[in-house]
Amino acid sequence: MIINVLMLMMAVSVMVIIRSRNLFGVIVLSGIYSFLMATVLVAMDAVDVAMTEAAVGAGISTVLLLGALYLCKSEEAHAPSKPLLPLLISLSVGGMLIYGTLGLPEFSDPKAPIHQHVVPRYLNELKQEVDVPNVVTAVLASYRGYDTLGETTVVFTAGAGVVALLRRRRKGRKL
Amino acid sequence: MKNDLILRVIAKLLIPFILLFALYVQFHGDFGPGGGFQAGVILAAAVIFYALIYGLADARKVVPEPLVESMMAIGVLIYAGVGVAGLLLGGNYLDYFVLDPNPVHGQHRGIFWVEVGVATTVSGVMLKIFYMFADRGKVDEE
To answer: Angle of helix B103-137 relative to helix B36-54, nearest 10 degrees?
Structure first.
């Protein structure tokens, strides 16, 4: 119930983002969208993900977008032509994605395939093997340690990429 | 925003609690929601908050750029180092069971250091990206 209300508010904020030409308002609204998303995730009992969404989506990316806005005009320029073909493509891709979700199992269905593969083992043997109350942490850091190492490397690579891109341009301008 | 008294006072009040919350999320991640990634982002957010209120130059004095850059790499190295420690102690790569005579304690130890590595890299990268963006826009001159 509460999820539906939040989803409706998210849809409204997306509509306003699309219509609005004031980029400052768009950035604030996207932060609001992230907070609503975080609330939806809390309502779905995914507290760890909600915390990340609130911190990254609503916090850091809002600040970064404001920093980017400072470099450009705060009014969005009008598009020179009506982008009908891209609209058609994104609508059809979105339609296909929605069609795909129709085949997914119900939310929190215990018979869903994802809950029958390794999840019983995680939940049953966690106490003897890892003994960490938060299952998410145990799966993330221990059972799926390789994945998290890869993720950390991805974050590092992203940072290194930004450093490489922005630093070179700044030097070229100054010297 | 440098001369806004209310913002400065509020920031001074809030930042210690944000930092404390980051540490709580980091070290309580085994028991409650949270972990290295979230703690790293909150830590970076605290410094970004400081930079927005007091200016980029002051933030650079508190958290200097070389420190941020080395944090990016040190985190990954800590994480990979836990794996190597497992190898040296006779286990597989990223095998935490061998890190302590008691296998369950070994798991705790492995998870602790891995989370430290994740938090270090994430906060380093977030801060570095912010520094680079803010430097181009000169947020501190606003």
So the answer is: 30
